[in-house]
Amino acid sequence: MKLNFLKHRWQKRLFKFVLIPVVVILVLAIVVNRYWSPILASKVKDVVLKSSDGLYKADFSDAELHILRGKIILYNITLKPDTAVYNQRKRLHLAPNTLVELTVKRLVINHAHPFSLYFQKKLNIGQIILSEPKLKVTYQLNHTKDTVVKDHRTAWQRIAKSLKSVHIGNILLNDVNLDYEDYSGNKVAISKLRELSLSANDLLIDSATQTDKSRLLYCRDIVTELNNYTGETPSGLYTYKIKHLKLSTLTSQLNIEGLAVQPLKPDNFFDKSRKDRLGFLADSIQINHFDYLNYHKYRTFSARSLSVAGGKITAFTNPVKGPDDGSDKVKTFPNMLIRKLNLDLRVDTVKLRRVDVVYSEFNKKTQQTGAVEFNNTSGTILNLTNNPSAVAKNNISDVTLVSYFMNYGRLDVQFKFTLNDDNAPFSCKGSLGSMDFSRLNPATMPLAMVKMTSGKVKKFSFDIAANSKVFKGKVDFLYNDLKVVLLKPDTANDRLKRKTIISIFANLFVIKHNNPDEKGKLTSSYVVFKRPKDFAFWKTIWKTLLTGIKPCIGLDEKSQKATKDRIDEHNKNKAERLKNKAERQKRKAERKKLMDEGKF
User: Fold this and answer.
1) Cβ(331)–Cβ(296) under 8 Å?
2) What is each CA distance from 147 to 55, 184, 495, in whole angstroms?
3) What pLDDT is recorded for position 16?
4) Residue 319's closest CA among 373, 267, 280?
5) How many beta carbons lie within 10 A of that of residue 255, not counting itself?
6) Which are the contacts of 527, defined by CB distance < 8 A and separation ≥ 6?
7) Other C-beta atoms within 10 Å of 1: how many?
8) What are the pLDDT digits (tens) for 426-453?
9) DSSP at 330
10) 3-state secondary structure of 354
11) Burial degree of 277 (CB within 10 A; 0-12, 13-18, 19+)
């Protein structure tokens, strides 16, 4: 058949120089697409096997190459570890801490430039998208530092003979299904992450970026985002939730929104545990200069600052605690808790903003729950660490807090904890501003059966130096017009009722209503409190302060003994009166009986 449209010379040239090459390219594309898949599969398997020293094997079921569009599609990709090789390395103490298993339904490479690769030896790809990747990560702490002898050449030095550079604009992993198994603790911790996405931007390997420390894995930024994550502690006592989490390697910043650690309901919790019931909520947490790689590899937590904004910490003491095990509760001191953490911790500064702290306790006598609140707490914690090298440089952790006691009186507190002394020394000093005594009733009525009917705190201050054995310091308590009512349980009506006579007695003869008194005399208290070994940290602080408060309100040892003697005498007289009354009623009943019988 004659080609009638090639009549003119220019048409023949166009066909020769344009259309023929296009046809050739299309034919080559079809041929390459047909035969390229097994070649690529073999190459991928070989590269993965060599680069992991035989630890990982990779495969895929099919591939498509679209030369004109610069697009490559791989199907059903798998990356699996060789368990035999892993176990052999483990016996030689050369196994990595983390194993990864990956399956991807579809991988799409967009905007690839084959001519740039062929003529300029530059691998340039616009975008790589992994669809529905399933990732299983297993962590086991086999070593705390790198043990494998590494090839110290940079990535660019290793590829320089075959490629001048590698550049990928974006790598996107959407709807990642991640199962994470952590074997580093006493029990296996399993996390299942579903609403997870990963993106890497501007991956560049060339002579300029080979020593660029601002890049992670040669990427300008790697961003991880997680939404609506829920989990459960191995004990089953707590659930935890995260509304949104974002980690950026460019800023080394981890942001968490809507973190909640919630215990079971009280009845279910205390059926399963003898421990105190705790809870934690945080509106937002920001961690700056977070060393993610070392945390991932060795479980070391290092950051320049950690900020918590908006939240609540709750503690409810167990009302059904069993018999004491006799252990020394010095382990509850903050400086000892940090030392015993199963985590290498180093945070330069912790910042707290608008955090409420609520401590609740159930009183078996009153059958009621009392609560002590520290509202709108803000402050800083400096040098929060148990890292040996960091502690060697600075062994003091400074804590400065401002709070509002019972949501009213301003409380300023400073702590200094020594981090490397088995005797757990620390100091604390603080002051409480003006507030009405009646603000204390939600705590004093159910817990101490005392109701504050009038009075105003002018100032309460303390300065304590302590260790695991003894707490020493000074307490000042300035107030006016203190009056109280002593209470007792009324089980019939499920309430508290007043002890009228004893309350009058306490107000008239025991309690000091003003400090300084009417003559201007100020009573201060110097405290020496020896800690029983079964007293925990906060209980010992409270008992120390209470020991200092009592003399300021007129309850020193002498007055307490005199008060006890008077109350004992009052109770003795009351018992005698009741006895005499009963005898009189008995005699009256006997006379009535005799009169009825006509014998009187």
Assistant:
1) no
2) 16, 18, 67
3) 44
4) 267
5) 17
6) 464, 471, 472, 473, 474, 475, 544, 547, 548
7) 3
8) 999 999 999 998 998 888 888 777 888 8
9) G
10) strand
11) buried
- Answer for the pair 327, 532: CB distance below 8 angstroms, yes or no: no
Mean pLDDT, the chain, as a whole number? 81
CB neighbour list of residue 477: distance below 8 Å, 6 or more residues apart: 457, 459, 460, 515, 525, 548, 549, 552, 553
Residue with tokens 């009638």: 4
From the number of C-beta atoms within 10 Å of its C-beta (0-12, 13-18, 19+), residue 398 rates as middle
Tell which residue, 416, 350, 418, has the closest CA to residue 380: 350
Q: How many CB atoms lie under 10 A from the CB of residue 195? A: 13
Question: For strand 300-316 and strand 344-363, is the pairing parallel, antiparallel, or unpaired?
Answer: parallel
Q: Which residue type occupies 449?
A: M
Q: Decide if 493 contacts 363 (C-beta within 8 A).
A: no
- What would you report as the CA-atom Rg of the chain, rounded to the nearest whole angstrom? 38
Q: How far apart are CA 503 and CA 497, in angstroms?
A: 11
The whole-angstrom separation of Cα 470 and Cα 192 is 47
Burial 334-364 (b: 16+ CB within 10 A, else e): bbbebbeeeebbbbbebebeebbbebbbbbe
Q: What is the pTM of this model?
A: 0.78
Give me the amino acid identity at 172.
Answer: L
Q: Cis ω on the peptide bond leading into residue 38 (within 30° of 0)? A: no
300-316 and 277-288 beta bridge pairing:
antiparallel
Q: In one letter, which amino acid is 515?
A: N
214: pLDDT strictly greater than 90: no
Which tokens belong to 255? 């942001």
Contacts 24+ apart (CB under 8 A), 491-498: 491/367, 494/367, 496/366, 496/368, 496/445, 496/446, 496/449, 496/451, 498/451
Distance, CA of 163 to CA of 175 (rounded, Å): 33
CB 156 within 8 A of CB 207: yes
Split at pLDDT 50, 70, 90, the class of 17 is very low
pLDDT band at 364 (very low <50, low <70, confident <90, very high): confident
